[in-house]
Amino acid sequence: MKQSNRGEGIAKVAKGPLGNRTRVTKADTAQKALKLKRLKALLNSRDDALQKQGSSKRAGVGGITVESSQQREKLAPASESASTQMSALQRKMKQKLKGARFRWINETMYTTTGEKSFEMVQKDPGIFEEYHQGFAAQVDKWPINPLDVFIEGLRGRAHLVVADMGCGEARLAAAVGKQHTIHSFDLVAHNKRITACNIANVPLCNDSVDLVVFCLALMGTDFIVFVREANRILRQNGELKIAEVVSRISDMSAFVEALEEQGFELICKDTTNKMFVLLELKKTGPCPTSFSTRPDLLKPCLYKRR
Ligand SMILES: C[S@@+](CC[C@H](N)C(=O)[O-])C[C@H]1O[C@@H](n2cnc3c(N)ncnc32)[C@H](O)[C@@H]1O
């Protein structure tokens, strides 16, 4: 039969379940069109509802819902910046906490005895890490590090036995340990070069060392006891090298005098740097049996909140 009008008469010839050709009537087509119209209306009304919720928009006709790129553009920057802001805030808070913790450890070590500091870090060795991270951040800001001055001073010299008291991470031994014998002491053995101890009592024999270094390490209120320990291990005429923060010393003469009282003689005082003073002393004899600790001679070196 000739199909004059596809939309009206016999619209289509479809295969039946048994493969027979089946006639599709005008009424069938109208019913299908109606069904399709209803389905489209249903889908459109669902889109409207979803758009109102602001959640997603239907793409295509399969009932698949996806976010439109416009929606993503609108939403992404807001949510990304929120998460960036959160992590920036979290980072700032974390830095502040780290700084506060460093300042607390630092202050504790400057206001207590070596023995108490030793007990504190032995109980919680993580304290050493926290302290040294904070200390390294401070050192980064200094125009010079006095430890570098000591390292350079040792480079050109004949073999020496050296005790680095309060060595930190034992950078002195790492730098000149092939040339010299360096004994490195600190509260925690951060690496294999270091022996953990209180520098008031180091495991070295009397008169066994040529040179003792205290680079910013006279931290305890009983620092005089550390100096006496240096005297014990130094041979006669052995060298004592001290670097200290200038602002810790309110009376330089009284400080030097107190050192000399422990069996030393001042050889050189370098005050050319505004931040640090470098002292060189020579052992002239054993230290006296009676002494006072004189914590008043060295103020704690407290770092500012940033
Ligand atoms: C300011 S840091 C200097 C570290 C190193 N000398 C430097 O210049 O890089 C002081 C060091 O002395 C150590 N220290 C302070 N009191 C100590 C004590 N009683 N016995 C052993 N080490 C001590 C601290 O643990 C710290 O590592």
From TrEMBL:
GO molecular function, one term: rRNA (adenine) methyltransferase activity
Region Disordered: start-end pairs: 1-29, 47-84
Domain of life: Eukaryota
EC number of this enzyme: 2.1.1.-
Entry annotated with the keyword S-adenosyl-L-methionine: yes
InterPro entries hit by this protein: RRP8, RRP8_N, SAM-dependent_MTases_sf
Compartment annotation: Nucleus, Nucleolus
SUPFAM superfamilies in alphabetical order: S-adenosyl-L-methionine-dependent methyltransferases (SSF53335)
GO cellular component term, pick one: nucleolus
Keywords: Chromatin regulator, Methyltransferase, Nucleus, Repressor, rRNA processing, S-adenosyl-L-methionine, Transcription, Transcription regulation, Transferase
Major localization class: nucleus
Claim: Phosphoprotein is one of the keywords in the record: no
Gene Ontology terms describing biological process: chromatin organization
Similarity comment: family membership: Belongs to the methyltransferase superfamily. RRP8 family.
Role played: S-adenosyl-L-methionine-dependent methyltransferase that specifically methylates the N(1) position of adenine in helix 25.1 in 25S rRNA. Required both for ribosomal 40S and 60S subunits biogenesis. Required for efficient pre-rRNA cleavage at site A2.
Protein name (Swiss-Prot/TrEMBL): Ribosomal RNA-processing protein 8
